[in-house]
Every structure is written in structure tokens, then in C-alpha cells.
Specification:
Order of helices and strands: HHEEEEEEEHEEEE
Low-confidence stretches: 1-35
Structural class: mainly beta
Number of strands: 11
Number of domains: 1
Shape: globular
Length: 185
């Protein structure tokens, strides 16, 4: 789950099953997610998506803006990578920022997932021991799966990339990324 909460993951997921996360009623992230109006994907009703693959995002008027990591301004980082680790990817959606950091002394292997609500109310840190999954930017924590979906599209046919959060019950919330900066292989 993206966030640190007083309730356990199972308690939080039982509060309201129609939201990615459950916060106090005053939390602005929860309000923003309610306004996003996630809609079932046409191919899979368990995927609730805020914007379709080719829908321009209101923040930029474009689909996800993808850039090489070397173009990312490091002062935008909200958390430093662990010692001997470097930034591998940075993603920003309507409600969240995500940093992926590398395995120590290994620049081509992601290992750490850091996320935070843009309003600063919650954060999550995951250290992956599954190198294959981390390489695909998939991280697991307490039955939840967090991933950066960035496949598909081309310069001639750009599409959105997504932050995907799959709950233990199989329901996946998919929030389009505004920006995705990634280390070039």
C-alpha cells in the first residue's frame, strides 16, 4: 500500500474497497482519488484506470512525458537513495511520486521503491529481494503489488505509462503517469 497508516494493511483495505488506499476522511489524497473516477478497463473489469492509454493528461495536455534519467533534475527527489545506490527511475502521477533506486554498486539493477503522496501525507519504502521482478519495476509489500507499467507505444504512437497498485483481492488501480524518467540501458 502506498502510505504509512495506523491501521494494518488488512484493516485499511476493508475500510473502503473502492479506493486504492484508505486514509482519514480529511486526507486530500483520498479526495483526489475519488475525483479521478477510476473506471473499469474495457479488457479487464478488475483494472480500474483513471485515463486510457491514449488520453492526454490534463496537467500537460499530452500522454506521459518520457525522458532519459540524465534529464531529471536531482533536486526534485524527495528521498535520497541508500548508500552506494543511485536513482534508476522517477515517476510522477496525479497523486504520487515514485523513486526507484538501484542495488548497491549495480547501476542496472533496481532494488528500492520509494513513494509518497504529493501532499506529503503518506509514504512507502520497499526493498526488493526479487531481482527479476525489480528489474521489471514490480515491487511487493504485504500482499500488495506496486509496478510502473511503461511498455508499449513509440514516438509515432505515444501512450501513457502507469503506476499500478494491485490489492490482495486482485483489484488493480491504475494511475497514469505525468512524467517518467528512466535510466537508459
Amino acid at each position: 500500500m502506498i502510505g504509512t497508516f495506523p491501521a494494518s494493511v488488512s484493516q485499511a483495505s476493508n475500510i473502503n474497497p473502492n479506493k486504492i488506499f484508505s486514509f482519514s476522511s480529511l486526507n486530500q489524497v483520498e479526495l483526489a482519488q475519488n475525483k479521478a473516477k477510476f473506471k473499469p478497463d474495457s479488457d479487464n473489469p478488475n483494472y480500474l484506470r483513471d485515463y486510457n492509454f491514449s488520453t492526454p493528461l490534463p496537467q500537460t495536455g499530452k500522454v506521459t512525458i518520457r525522458r532519459a534519467l540524465r534529464e531529471f533534475k536531482q533536486n526534485r527527489m524527495f528521498k535520497a537513495c541508500p548508500a552506494n545506490s543511485e536513482l534508476y527511475a522517477f515517476a510522477e502521477s496525479t497523486n504520487y511520486q515514485v523513486e526507484i533506486c538501484t542495488k548497491e554498486h549495480t547501476l542496472k539493477q533496481p532494488k528500492y521503491y520509494f513513494s509518497r503522496a504529493k501532499n506529503g501525507s503518506s509514504s512507502l519504502t520497499i526493498k526488493s529481494n526479487d531481482e527479476d521482478a525489480a528489474y521489471q519495476l514490480i515491487f511487493q509489500n504485504n500482499g500488495y503489488t506496486y509496478s510502473i507499467y511503461r511498455d508499449g507505444g513509440s514516438s509515432k504512437n505515444p501512450i501513457n505509462a502507469y503506476l499500478e497498485v494491485t490489492r490482495p483481492d486482485g483489484k488493480t488501480f491504475v494511475e497514469a503517469l505525468i512524467y517518467l524518467y528512466e535510466r537508459q540501458q
